[in-house]
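User: Please predict the structure of the protein below. I'd like the answer in structure-token form so I can feed it into my own downstream comparison script.

Assistant: Understood. Taking the following sequence of 687 residues as input:
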Amino acid sequence: MSAEEERYGKHGEPFKHDSSFKGPIQNRSCTDIACCILFIIAILGYIAVGILAWSQGDPRKAIYPTDSRGDFCGQAGTPLENKRKLFYFNIMKCANPVVLLSFQCPTTQLCVEKCPDRFMTLVKALKNDKDFDYYKNFCKETATHIVRDGLCPSMLFPSKSFTRRCFPALGLKGGVVTVGNSTTFIDGNGNEREAKDLVDGVKNATVVMESRQVVMKIFEDYTQSWYWILIGLVIAMLLSLLFIVLMRFLAGVMIWIIIIAVIAVIGYGIFHCYMEYANLKNEPGANVTLQELGFQTDFTIYLQVRQTWLAFVIILAIMEVIIILLLIFLRKRILIAIALIKEASKAIRYMMCSMFYPLFTFLLLAIVVAYWAVTAVFLSTSNEAIYKVVNQSDCVHSGNVCVHANYSTSKMKVDCPDSQCNFAYYGGETVYHKYLIGLQFYNVFLFFWCANFVIALGQMTLAGAFASYYWAFSKPGDIPSFPVFSAMGRSLRYHTGSLAFGSLILAIVQIIRVLLEYLDQKLKGAENKFAKFLLCCLKCCFWCLEKFIKFMNRNAYIMVRVWVAVVDKVTDFLLFLGKLLVVGLVGVFAFFFFSGRVKAFENTAPNLHYYWVPILTVVIGSYLIAHGFFSVYNMCVDTLFLCFCEDLERNDGSPARPYYMSTTIREILWKSEDGLRAFRPRLRLSK
């Protein structure tokens, strides 16, 4: 008995040849129906959460200052239209650590036209009509109610406006903290206090304000540069499309051009960064280390430090060396990968609409991201101002929630005459507010789930389209009409459940990663041994879970991995270089344009707070666009590999059972008929 006869049937019977075979589509039915139903229910719940958030939230709370009653300072059409600045009754209460948790100072806040410009106490103001007329600008009610209800601040400081909020005008004089050029001030009780007592309150309050100020500046930069950002993204799209079209006709030449161009662009980056590093040698302050500089919201400051450019030089040099070494060691595989890309180009020629399908995926992802972001903002701004009874002496209502508007005439005020209804925090006592954190978690989880579902749908659609090309025995006659749309229809009709199941697993892993990162940040400085042990256990569990998912993925694609994974990864590497080239070219153009370093565009470029904002946006957007176009080639090559394995399983190359693979693929992957026969039992064994 020959070796071939001995092997036949040892690892399972091969499939019989079918001349009308167009892929394993017989007896097709819906998969993972339960997960499909679960996904639909989750989407309906997500829509309900969005509607609920939009009905309760007000994003203006995250941008504009609001007084203690929840009214917006400077809002048009209201009595506060001309009162655009927010004044704190007692800024020192902002030193309370609760400020950093609730993002709200536990003191009365009032909208005013101008910040105070002088020292003054309420006791002094009541003795002088002129002073009192000035003081009333910072009081909540008319003069008859001020003394009775204590609706005025006990003291005023010279203040400056910062993000439309009044903060004491602190300074340094001989190393001593001053406020209004004075090192001391008289508080509302007649006690002399040092100006440094105000520092903690101002510091905590400005932590929140500075973060909001950065957000506002970034928002303003986007409003000034969105047009140019779109132009940069369009250029990236045209470059990507140009490379893909040229690869259709000149695949080998284009790959070598991309390789040389990437090396040249990175080399220029090294040269440019070194020249910046050398030019800063004698500049004052340029030798400050990044550790000494600390975190700065204005990133242009980092570009004035030599160490920043040195870091860029080192990073780019390492990238250059790694790429060159990979090209040297994989030079033979690169030739095979180029041949594979040529074959993929033939498939794409018959379905050019596949080139634009990533734009549809990108649009769906943009909708998912926008829905998540808007819902998150509305959820975070749906809290209400909560007021509670505060009393210096014993009071049965102390700590209870009160209504600020009519507290002076309420029963609580009658029972406790010296009590006050003070602002406590932003929150709520309703069922909705109690489960607000849960709704935010649901919003994040559904974001991951939907985003992964959209990506999986794109992958399955392209895979189905390219599979229809492979299984067309006579190309292009047997290729179905509208292969991309047909593949997407089959994916949604039969495999929505499977797509939802796979994306659900990824969403669970990603949400666990987010939670672990959050815990890691919270417990970094913890001295509690149990907390550190718990975090270690969680990381261990997550590591095991990640390994398990990788194990499942490895077995799901075992047919590809046992034989052709190396060539596949080399192809991915070459296409990745193409993405880098697009990003590098567009990024360099954006840098010189937005930084104003090109005199021809000096007057055209917009004036920005942070010119790195549009540059970073263009770079990230360019990579996503390039990834979308080049991923079509990645998916095409991967699909051809998998179909190749199925082809070997079903056919033997005889006239009765001919291969569907093209001559090019056969020449690329196998050199002899013996190799094909040797590989066939390995395929059945891998199942």
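That's the full token string. The first strand starts at residue 85 and ends at 88.
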